[in-house]
Amino acid sequence: MDLTEQTKQLEADLVELESLLEKAERKRVQDLLKQEKQKVEKELALKKQQKEQQVKREVDPSAPSKAPYTVKITNYAWDQSEKFVKIYLTLKDVQKHPSENVQVEFREGSFSVLVKDLNGKNHQMNILNLLHPIDPNESFKKIKTDMVLVMCKKQTSKKWDCLTKVEKQTKEKKEKPDVDDSADPSEGLMNLLKKIYTEGDDEMKRTLNKAWTESQDKEKRRGDMMDL
Asked: Where is the CS domain (predicted)?
């Protein structure tokens, strides 16, 4: 069965499913018919796409036969205002692309971007575990020259330190020194004092020198008393 005949059969199935759905009264039956209808619609859309590609190849044998492959969007930056977190995605010539092929799905803790068949590729981006929740209904996209601007509406006006929770955890881990439970506590204290001494100003150095001298004198007097 060729693509044309397959398409006709699927279209006939869809018409019959729609007719049955109109007559169905029980919710369970309606749900089953809706699920089947969605499957047929997806299959029909795929067959139509294959048919279009087939026609293109017949008109232009040099036209590519493969469907666009998907690449991850890695070139982006982000900024924020009081009400929005803004993500800037750099995509060449996206402003010339049909807007319906630029799809952004917002959820409270994440968002995803799919730009279909741009320059022969699908461009995809998934940002999970946003640092704070957003309002999906008030979030939207803007298409600019060589750029897609994703506008995530904040649920609260608090400032974001990072875009995601993972980035924040990574940042905090870098800032927080690792603690070795097996290390000598006195060695850790000495290292800390050395760090403070090295980075401190003259006043800090004088204070540490004085404290160190007094500490050594106290230890010496204690040792002299033990010898008595």
From this structure: 71-164
